[in-house]
Amino acid sequence: MENNRISRRGFLGKSALLGAAGFAGLSAVSSCSNSNKVDYQFPPLHEKAPDGKPLRAGLIGCGNRGTGAALNFLSAGNGLELVSLADIFEDKLLECRNKLQKQHIQLSDNNCFSGFDAFKKLLEVDLDVVILATPPHFRPLHFEAAIEAGKHVFMEKPAAVDSFGVHQVIATSEKAVEKGLTVITGTQRRHQRDYLETYRKVAAGAIGEITSAKAWWLRPHSWFRTRHENWSDMEYMIRNWNNFCWLSGDHFLDTHIHNIDVVNWFLGRHPESAMGFGGRVRRMTGDQYDFFSVDFDFGNGVSSHSMSREIDGCTNSLGEQVTGTEGYTNCKNTIYYPDGTIKWQYQYSENNGGTSTGVVKVSPYVQEHIHLVTAIRMNEPIVESRRMAESTLTAIMGRTAAYTGQKITWEEMIQSNERLGPDNYELGPVEMDFPVPVPGEKIKI
């Protein structure tokens, strides 16, 4: 396991037949060009969710992001309660409980579960909402189980790590719509006031016709775990999940999906194909790349360049830029004339003597949960998982292009049955090898 080896079987996993709903869901996603028409379904931007029926939530995945998401949910309004926890590892569950106890949040021992089947036990608890924050590989499985159990869902990004999982999420999204459930996803920029207002203006023609875009997330290597002697193969990989593609999808998907999602959002469609490259020069564990450079072709001469890098000691930066015939924008809060002068800028309320707009800055991590609670209590369900699945597949397409060195098309991704990961989930040895992907090799997708 410490050697970075991977067999084709390990990399591709097992193929399986997918339901028609999965294929139809992605094939039906709009591919029309930007028409300068503001028809986006904007989320309600309350500073606090309206009062209403008390909502009981359970958390699946008790790491730092899961614990943070649970606290964000509790901060969204009144009458919100966290009543159950589930994680594969008992020590992670206890660590989460200790953090929550410091915030005066108590949970019953009877509602705290560990092990691979912990999510099933949590779904038997009297809950209204389930928060999904495990390593991304498990997202499709847990999402499907939560919707089948009739629960509203907050699910972290990305939706999946492979095409198989994306199709599963799309099919489950259709079930959520049929059941009238709400699903909010962790693409928090779509719940952020400045991004939303900037999008509104761009969609109304503030920069003219969109001609190109770029997105980037350049940062240090986030973290890794040194293997303990008593850890099995499976335990080591899951505790070190962001260094293995089958668990995280590689950082081009796991983190850069935020930027990719913004570009898809502002352009109003997904790309038609991707070409790119990447490599590995500093990582010591896992099977992932250090860096990616991918060009997405949106058709009609419009393209977006994506950069993603996780290497210590380098310049760090992240953001998006969309350029049009009459200017460009950073997507977040500013629109520029072609010469670089500011045409428009969003401003939050100032509390230090500056000009006040009366708009309070609410954390987007809380704002998305305000949207979740509002949709439930107002009986106005919304399902965001389908669009996150589209952005997830976009990132997978870019990752695959870099891994293989080939031009990868959207249609190929729709038809792909690629499934990453082992066949069974149990703490013990894993019959998989993990070499770093080599561009130019023929790899079935």
UniProtKB/TrEMBL annotation:
Classification via InterPro entries: Gfo/Idh/MocA-like_OxRdtase_N, Gfo/Idh/MocA_oxidrdct_glycsds, GFO_IDH_MocA-like_dom, NAD(P)-bd_dom_sf, TAT_signal, TAT_signal_bac_arc
Superkingdom field: Bacteria
Protein name in the entry: Tat (Twin-arginine translocation) pathway signal sequence
Residues covered by the Gfo/Idh/MocA-like oxidoreductase N-terminal domain: 56-183
Domain GFO/IDH/MocA-like oxidoreductase: 199-307
Family annotation (SUPFAM superfamilies): Glyceraldehyde-3-phosphate dehydrogenase-like, C-terminal domain, NAD(P)-binding Rossmann-fold domains
Lineage of source species: Bacteria, Pseudomonadati, Bacteroidota, Bacteroidia, Marinilabiliales
Transmembrane segments annotated in the record for this chain: none
